[in-house]
């Protein structure tokens, strides 16, 4: 095989452009050259050589030197210059470039080939001594850093010193003579530090640079980057050796970067920055403020400077044409690097440009409209995870402020408010019309009130699926969880943050639930507008997706929001949340604390109308769409007081002896509530609870049917089933209530009784359970907990360590564990459908809103995914992508 491929010669290049071997940069240079665009000629040493290099003690394969020498000859012919001593010295750049772009991770050397002799020749050839000496200076600095291991800082320091001695502010003010002196000092510095002279032989320089580029593949920063982005070592990097062109040959020369469209807004217009009389990295380095490519010539610091359009209209026009051609050729927005040498434009790189979420959507839709890409391609181009962010405000990009903590981005949205430490304070502050952020070590179901009253939630413990996170996402309340660098001191009433900050109740903070940032004071935020593009993209996605998208909604507010975002029903309504509202918690407690069935029934009778009203409202909002209601699931003690103070308050409110209450609490205490008396187990111990809920559902369904004329088919879901007999027992009770309600009302009601599949046994025995169940809903939160035997409330503490040590890649509570939990889902679906081919199967765990997990669900041919309201658009798009 060839080790080396040329580009930019006049002769036709006939080889396949193999991106994997040439690397992204090499492939783009070959492609642009083939399109006839102005690319300085050069060679690409393929990435296979990189592997060889590592497998053979950092040596090169036989024949490589010859291939490079041969290629260089063609570069010399094409440029009319010679590498080494010559009247027209050829200088080279040696550039890394792997299959995927790793910005700034690996090394590049410019101006290679300069030495004490060629610098003079270059000065004569170009008639610009200042330029020649400045190029040599840059070369020594870069080469020493990259190939000899002497940090640039040594040189920068020396340069700074000289500049201040000479009274210059910028290096552009240095004269040729001064630069010559600096070069001499650079060389002395190098000898002092490394004990060797700067290599004068251009070929030694060339092979030193090639080795250095290959070596940079395993540098610390590249290794970290590769690990983060799952880039295998085996891909290696290619090396591009290219004739230099000079943006620093005076005021008709320049260098810059440009995008074919605006990467932050998506606007269809060339967008870029450049510097006059500059080279390569000057634009990125930020020493001088770059100028705008297009008019108006606005610059970063706020002023105006002439644009490229004004300064060099011919080169600009050519860049504009090239830009349009490249975009059409690649069918995507491009990020280009260019240099103008004495008025002539050269293209040095092009690749797909990174863009902000909103821009990605606009660009995809525009390009589909322009016929550049198909609708399906447009659907694929938008990252579903970013839609969620687009629905919420964020902290203004670029705002620095004082960061006082950081945690997990649990529920997007940026909000500013006063901090409070208890749900009660949140409620009373809310009543006074104050905006508060509820700060807790972690939240429990009792905090729900407080969470509804708060505009944001911050916890110092807990993960992405902790109680606070799930509830906040469900409510669309911005939330940051697990801010481990902050600490709540409940005794002193202080929130400790980074750098010793201390905040008291009433102090203002801003949290950004999309990034996990916690800022002191009020940070400026920006609210997104749902563009027409957004709506249109959703429609296109709806046209191609197969799975339905439902929502997890517990309250009318959730349901309404979800409808707006396009939910096609409710996949999970968690009824327990309804019992924390207003005065209900008191009735609930009375029910739980009752010693007899009769006592319980009395309390339940009072809860019935409230529960019925909840369902009536939900049914009205969902207007005939399916609504899945889960019977009471959590262990009862979650509704009971915990601290001594709370126990006393509750005892008083209920007119009980404190001791008697304590006694009852002891009786309800469980070692392991997650695996304890909850779910259908409650309905079996206390069927009257399930009966009350069923009655509320049926009566509401009748009322809704009468009111709207649209029959609702409620889907009643029994949680935590592992035995068919459990489901049968509870279903028997529900059927009896249905029968009674139909008799009383004289109206027929259709309804379904189904179950969550959230325990491994249920998945394994799905064929049996499906005989009783009318539907399955895969409850992947609990299924993940029980499959791993891992409590999701305790897991965040050590799962982070697991990820760091490479034991797991992703948190299984966020992204499905396909191999284990997924296998059980597959079994449950297949076995259930063996019994009932048309068995409706959906997913209602947090994974229902995770794009990768949604793709997996499409593979199982699930009927729907259900997710929190703000994730509905994400799920619609992800479900569409899963079918393409
Ligand atoms: P990175 O991958 O970090 O962007 P590059 O290999 O693209 O590194 O090189 C960085 C910069 O060096 C380029 O943007 C360009 O300005 C300059 N450069 C690279 N090769 C040449 C060349 N042949 N002529 C002029 N400038 C070059
Ligand atoms: Mg580059
Ligand atoms: Mg569950």
From TrEMBL:
Main EC class the enzyme belongs to:
transferase
GO MF, any single term: ATP binding
Record's keyword annotation contains Magnesium: yes
Q: Which cofactor does it need?
A: Mg(2+)
Substrates-to-products reaction catalysed: pyruvate + phosphate + ATP = phosphoenolpyruvate + AMP + diphosphate + H(+)
Q: Which sites bind substrate? A: 574, 630, 758, 779-782
Catalytic-site annotation from UniProt: 467, 844
Q: What InterPro entries does its record include?
A: ATP_grasp_subdomain_1, PEP-util_enz_mobile_dom, PEP_util_AS, PEP_util_C, Phosphohistidine_dom_sf, PPDK_AMP/ATP-bd, Pyruvate_phosphate_dikinase, Pyrv/PenolPyrv_kinase-like_dom
What are the residue boundaries of the PEP-utilising enzyme mobile domain, all occurrences included? Answer: 435-516
First and last residue of the signal peptide: none
Q: What sequence ranges are listed for the domain PEP-utilising enzyme C-terminal? A: 531-882
Q: Which UniProt keywords apply?
A: ATP-binding, Kinase, Magnesium, Metal-binding, Nucleotide-binding, Pyruvate, Transferase
Pfam families tied to this protein: PEP-utilizers, PEP-utilizers_C, PPDK_N
Give EC number(s), comma-separated: 2.7.9.1
Q: Where does Mg(2+) bind?
A: 758, 782
Going by the entry's taxonomy, the superkingdom of the source organism is recorded as: Bacteria
The residues covered by the Pyruvate phosphate dikinase AMP/ATP-binding domain are 65-293, 310-370
Query: What family is it from?
Result: Belongs to the PEP-utilizing enzyme family.
Q: What does this protein do?
A: Catalyzes the reversible phosphorylation of pyruvate and phosphate.
Provide the protein name. Answer: Pyruvate, phosphate dikinase
Organism, scientific name: Martelella radicis
Upper lineage: Bacteria, Pseudomonadati, Pseudomonadota, Alphaproteobacteria, Hyphomicrobiales
């Amino acid at each position: 095989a060839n080790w080396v491929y040329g580009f930019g010669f006049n002769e036709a290049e006939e080889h396949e452009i193999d991106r994997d071997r040439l690397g992204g940069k090499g492939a783009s240079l070959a492609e642009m050259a083939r399109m006839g665009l102005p690319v300085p000629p050069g060679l690409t040493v393929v990435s296979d050589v990189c592997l060889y290099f590592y497998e053979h003690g950092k040596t090169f394969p036989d024949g490589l030197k010859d291939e490079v020498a041969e290629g260089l000859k063609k570069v010399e012919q094409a440029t009319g210059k010679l590498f080494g001593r010559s009247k027209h010295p050829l200088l080279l750049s040696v550039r890394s470039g792997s299959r995927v772009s790793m910005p700034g991770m690996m090394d590049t050397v410019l101006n290679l080939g300069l030495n004490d002799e060629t610098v003079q020749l270059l000065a004569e050839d170009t008639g610009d001594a200042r330029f020649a000496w400045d190029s040599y200076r840059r070369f020594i600095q870069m080469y020493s850093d990259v190939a000899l291991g002497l940090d640039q800082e040594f040189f920068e320091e020396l340069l700074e010193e000289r500049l201040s001695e000479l009274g210059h502010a910028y290096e552009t003010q240095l004269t040729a003579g001064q630069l010559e002196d600096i070069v001499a000092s650079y060389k002395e510095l190098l000898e002092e530090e490394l004990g060797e002279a700067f290599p004068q032989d251009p070929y030694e320089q060339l092979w030193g640079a090639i080795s250095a580029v290959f070596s940079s593949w395993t540098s610390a920063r590249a290794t970290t980057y590769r690990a983060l982005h799952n880039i295998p070592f085996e891909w290696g990097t290619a090396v591009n050796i290219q004739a230099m062109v000079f943006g620093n040959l005076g005021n008709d020369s320049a260098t810059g970067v440009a995008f074919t469209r605006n990467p932050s807004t998506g606007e269809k217009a060339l967008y870029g920055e450049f510097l006059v009389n500059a080279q390569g990295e000057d634009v990125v380095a930020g020493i001088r403020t770059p100028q705008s490519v297009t008019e108006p010539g606005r610059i970063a610091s706020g002023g105006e400077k002439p644009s490229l359009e004004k300064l060099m209209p011919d080169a600009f026009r050519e860049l504009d044409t090239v830009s349009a051609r490249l975009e059409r050729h690649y069918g995507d927005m491009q990020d280009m690097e260019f240099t103008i040498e004495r008025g002539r434009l050269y293209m040095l790189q092009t690749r797909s440009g990174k863009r902000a979420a909103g821009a990605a959507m606009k660009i995809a839709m525009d390009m589909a409209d322009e016929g550049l890409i198909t609708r399906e391609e447009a659907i694929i181009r938008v990252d579903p995870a970013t839609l969620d962010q687009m629905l919420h405000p964020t902290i203004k990009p670029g705002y620095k402020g004082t960061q006082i903590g950081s945690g997990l981005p649990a529920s997007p949205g940026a909000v500013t408010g006063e901090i409070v430490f208890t749900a009660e304070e949140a409620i009373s502050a809310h009543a006074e019309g104050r905006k508060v952020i509820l700060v807790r070590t972690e939240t429990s179901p009792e905090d729900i009130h407080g969470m509804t009253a708060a505009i944001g939630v911050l916890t110092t413990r807990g993960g992405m699926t902790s109680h606070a996170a799930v509830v906040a996402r469900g409510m669309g309340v911005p939330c940051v969880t697990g801010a481990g660098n902050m600490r709540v001191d409940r005794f002193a009433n202080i929130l400790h943050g980074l750098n010793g900050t201390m905040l008291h109740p009433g102090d203002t903070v801003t949290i950004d639930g999309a990034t996990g940032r916690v800022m002191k004071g009020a940070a400026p935020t920006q609210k997104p507008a749902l563009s027409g593009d957004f709506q249109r993209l959703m429609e296109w996605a709806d046209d191609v997706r197969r799975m339905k998208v439902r929502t997890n909604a517990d309250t009318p507010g959730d349901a309404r929001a979800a409808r707006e975002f396009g939910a096609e029903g409710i996949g999970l309504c968690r009824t327990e949340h309804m019992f924390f509202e207003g005065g209900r918690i008191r009735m609930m407690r009375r029910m739980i604390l009752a010693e007899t069935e009769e006592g319980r029934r009395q309390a339940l009778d009072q809860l019935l109308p409230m529960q019925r009203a909840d369902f009536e409202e939900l049914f009205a909002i969902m207007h005939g769409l399916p609504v899945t209601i889960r019977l009471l699931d959590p262990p009862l003690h979650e509704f009971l007081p915990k601290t001594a103070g709370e126990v006393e308050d509750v005892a008083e409110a209920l007119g009980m002896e404190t001791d008697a209450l304590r006694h009852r609490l002891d009786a309800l205490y469980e070692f392991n509530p997650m695996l304890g008396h909850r779910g259908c187990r409650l309905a079996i111990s206390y069927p009257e609870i399930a009966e009350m809920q069923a009655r509320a559902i049926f009566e509401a369904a009748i009322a809704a049917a009468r009111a709207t004329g649209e029959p609702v088919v409620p889907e009643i879901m029994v949680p935590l089933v592992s035995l068919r007999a459990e489901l049968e027992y509870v279903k028997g009770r529900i059927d009896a209530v249905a029968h009674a309600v139909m008799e009383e009302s004289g109206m027929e009601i259709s309804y379904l009784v189904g179950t969550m599949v959230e325990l491994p046994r249920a998945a394994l025995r799905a064929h049996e359970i499906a005989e009783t169940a009318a539907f399955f809903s895969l409850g992947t939160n609990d299924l993940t907990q029980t499959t791993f035997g891992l409590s999701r409330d305790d897991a965040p503490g050590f799962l982070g360590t697991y990820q760091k040590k490479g034991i797991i890649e992703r948190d299984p509570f966020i992204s499905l564990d396909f191999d284990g939990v997924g296998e059980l889902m597959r079994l449950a679906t297949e076995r259930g459908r063996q019994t009932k081919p048309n068995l409706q199967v959906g997913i209602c765990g947090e994974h229902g809103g995770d794009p990768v997990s949604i793709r997996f669900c499409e593979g199982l041919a699930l009927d729907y995914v259900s997710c929190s309201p703000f994730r509905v658009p994400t799920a619609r798009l992800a479900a569409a992508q899963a079918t393409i």
